[in-house]
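ARCHIVE CARD
Drawer: 12
Card no.: 0347
Subject: one protein chain, sequence and derived structure
Cross-reference: see card 0346
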Amino acid sequence: MVPKSKQTESVSTEYLRQARIVWRELISIAKKLPKSRALTETQYICRAGYDLMQATAEADGIYAMTQVESAQRLSCLNDAYGRLCLIAMLIDAWLDDMPQVVYTERDQNGAEIQVKKPFVKMERLISLAGSVSNTMKVTKGAIKSERHRLKQFASTGETDNGEFS
């Protein structure tokens, strides 16, 4: 049987690892988006990814030994989950309306026709959506675990500074 301290460590490392996967995929997709959209969606998605990494790294760095530390960790995890929801919303919008590149080609008769092609392949967006879904599940599990830990602190009568009343 794995000691409780090791179980907590593996769970915390997992949500950080999953967030890194989402971050890498987000950045690689954002690089392919058109420059005309750089001031809207690209900035939003990159900022959400950065905030996600910051929140998960901060939560992972908190060693929750007191009620205050546990509450701080829960706050960071909730922030990370909110960022994941924002990223999922943007991915959903992209699946409905992916930016297209338009270029002209000549057909067999020599007439010019316009061809539209998405900037990012749908398979990559679907893969990113799956990664975000997995990360949301892991983060939600960590949030539930942290809420349970806070309830345990409350039931033992620990005060905010780590002392018992």
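Annotation on reverse: The first strand starts at residue 100 and ends at 106. The longest helix spans residues 122-156.
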